[in-house]
């Protein structure tokens, strides 16, 4: 189930971005991008900060290893993002 406000965007800037990407590429933006843009102060910004810390912060694994793990898990979950 998709929430209509998340699907079409809650702000003019999101609606324009979604329409632009669809027009230029022929594809809709992935759900994760739409979710991050929906009320970004509640979810998008904190989630982005957390993801950047996990993927780029100090770790025993290199950045490319973390990216490879994320891509592998996404593939297993049939996620195109």
Mind sketching the topology for me?
Layout: H1 4-8, H2 12-25, H3 31-37, H4 44-56, H5 63-76
Largest sheet: number of strands, sense, barrel closure = none
Please tell me what the overall shape is.
Answer: globular
Which structural class fits the helix and strand makeup?
mainly alpha
Number of domains: 1
Return Rg in Å: 15 Å
Counted by DSSP, the helix tally is: 5
Report how far the terminal alpha carbons are from each other: 18 Å
Give the helices and strands as they follow along the chain.
Answer: HHHHH
Overall average pLDDT:
91
Record field, number of beta strands: 0
Strand content: under 5%
Q: Which spans of ≥5 residues are poorly predicted at pLDDT below 50?
A: none
Proportion of helical residues: 55-70%
Describe the structure.
With 81 residues, this protein is mainly alpha-helical. It has one domain (4-76). Helices cover 65% and strands 0% of the residues. The chain has helices at 4-8, 12-25, 31-37, 44-56, 63-76. It is globular, with a radius of gyration of 15 Å. The mean pLDDT is 91.
């Amino acid at each position: 189930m998709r929430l209509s406000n998340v699907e079409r965007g809650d702000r003019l800037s999101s609606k324009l971005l979604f329409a632009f990407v669809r027009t230029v590429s022929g594809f809709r933006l992935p759900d994760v991008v739409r979710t991050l843009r929906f009320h970004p102060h509640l979810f998008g910004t904190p989630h982005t900060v957390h993801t950047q810390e996990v993927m780029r912060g100090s770790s025993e694994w290199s950045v490319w290893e973390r990216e490879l793990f994320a891509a592998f898990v996404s593939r297993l979950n049939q996620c195109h993002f």
